[in-house]
């Protein structure tokens, strides 16, 4: 039988507690409940945002991306490409040439990112499903077409149904500049606008997809490529395929999975989540100060009880544990209510989208929420640590109380 817990429970549920002690205990419970609920909700929102970032970029990014460690491009040949295609777990291999170029349309111009891709590129992503105007085909009836981001379309007023005005790309040639013929310093190629895509503003405002051969001719890349993008076969593990490719290709190539392609963005979300956790832990600590005050007052109120227990043979550890249990009851009941409320609010947000993002151009209408068991465990551990810290001093004071002065 756990005597300290039974006595602590009796003190907690006793109706004869002094009114002020009861009020402070209730305030402490409410503070812990509100703090823990807010912490779970905010952490779940950050989890949802992290998943949303992955979902947004999954339509654009490959499972694995091979780039050069030094320089922005590397040489390829048939043997090199076959080595990659024959690796276990590799389903689709796409060649990519990507660089900046000047784009003209009518009397407007802007610098865009030209991404030349091989014909199987759309087999490993969902960009073709993001086409909002025109078609996604880059080659049709032996004619080259460009797939333009919606932001680029707005900037240049591009019309896909106007077949008489092509897109004109300009890229500096690898020759000495001739001031008498400035136009000769640029490669100039025309291509028809075939479709408009809308994925995410970062891509919509700068990217134009073109056939690989068109990009190789414009940028004078030949057999050089800026990246090789890979779709992993169903059932294969990305990390295993990545490790095998890294071993096969060596240290001159960098192989990144989808998360590593956006390391800085995802790291920023994780850092913000960490600081939010620390901030709310401090708030929980401040709310738990009421536990310290209520326990201190309870020790004063129960001096006679403590003296009687000590005279009956209760050790200092037993008396100390009574008040540690009392603090734990206040904190854990408040935390139980708070975690339950936080879980309920997160479920309501997931189901009904109660809180809107407040932006008409947002990818999702409501704030994304994802609950993780790890967050509940971390919140519980934070409450345990804080409760122990604020309960130790009153509990020690009770254990050190003189029997003869209070009997």
TrEMBL record:
It is a multi-pass membrane protein. It is found in: Cell membrane. GO terms for biological process: lipoprotein localization to outer membrane. InterPro entries: ABC3_permease_C, Lipoprotein-release_system, MacB_PCD. Residues 278-402 form the ABC3 transporter permease C-terminal domain. The keyword Cell membrane applies. It holds the Pfam family FtsX. Its main location: membrane. Keywords: Cell membrane, Membrane, Transmembrane, Transmembrane helix. GO terms for cellular component: plasma membrane protein complex. Residues 27-247 form the MacB-like periplasmic core domain. Coiled coil: none annotated. The chain crosses the membrane at residues 20-46, 274-300, 321-345, 376-392. Belongs to the ABC-4 integral membrane protein family. LolC/E subfamily. PANTHER family: LIPOPROTEIN-RELEASING SYSTEM TRANSMEMBRANE PROTEIN LOLE. This is ABC transporter permease. It comes from Pontibacter diazotrophicus. The lineage of its organism: Bacteria, Pseudomonadati, Bacteroidota, Cytophagia, Cytophagales.
């Amino acid at each position: 039988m756990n005597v300290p817990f039974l006595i602590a429970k009796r003190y907690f549920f006793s109706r004869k507690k002094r009114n002020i002690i009861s009020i402070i205990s209730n305030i402490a419970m409410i503070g812990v409940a509100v703090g823990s609920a807010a912490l779970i909700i905010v952490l779940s929102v950050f989890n949802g945002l992290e998943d949303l970032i992955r979902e947004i970029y999954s339509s654009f990014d490959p499972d694995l991306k091979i780039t050069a460690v030094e320089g922005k491009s590397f040489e390829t040949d048939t043997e090199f490409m076959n080595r990659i295609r024959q690796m276990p777990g590799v389903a689709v291999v796409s060649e990519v040439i990507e660089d900046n170029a000047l784009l003209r349309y009518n009397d407007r111009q802007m610098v865009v990112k030209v991404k030349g891709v091989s014909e199987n590129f759309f087999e490993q992503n969902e960009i073709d499903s993001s086409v909002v105007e025109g078609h996604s085909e880059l080659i049709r009836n032996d004619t080259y077409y460009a797939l333009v981001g919606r932001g680029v379309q707005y900037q240049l007023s591009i019309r896909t149904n106007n077949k008489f005005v092509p897109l004109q790309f300009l890229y500096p040639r690898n020759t000495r500049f001739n001031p008498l013929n400035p136009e000769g310093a640029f490669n100039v190629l025309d291509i028809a606008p075939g479709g408009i895509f809308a994925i995410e503003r970062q891509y919509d405002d700068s990217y134009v997809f073109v056939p690989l051969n068109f990009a190789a001719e414009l940028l004078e890349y030949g057999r050089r490529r800026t990246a090789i993008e890979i779709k992993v076969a169903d059932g294969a593990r990305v990390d295993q395929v990545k490790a095998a490719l890294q071993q096969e290709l060596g240290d001159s190539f960098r192989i990144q999975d989808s998360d590593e392609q956006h390391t800085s963005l995802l790291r920023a979300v994780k850092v913000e989540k960490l600081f939010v956790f620390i901030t709310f832990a401090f708030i929980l600590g401040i709310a738990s100060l009421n536990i310290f005050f209520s326990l201190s007052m309870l020790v004063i109120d129960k001096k006679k009880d403590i003296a009687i227990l000590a005279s009956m043979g209760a050790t200092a550890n037993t008396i100390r544990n009574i008040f540690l249990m009392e603090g734990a009851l206040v904190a854990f009941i408040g935390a139980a209510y708070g975690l339950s409320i936080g879980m309920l609010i997160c479920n309501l947000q997931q189901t009904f989208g109660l809180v809107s993002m407040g932006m008409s151009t947002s990818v999702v209408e409501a704030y994304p929420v994802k609950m993780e068991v790890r967050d509940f465990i971390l919140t519980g551990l934070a409450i345990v640590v804080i409760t122990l810290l604020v309960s130790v001093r009153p509990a020690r004071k009770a254990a050190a109380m003189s029997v003869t002065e209070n009997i």
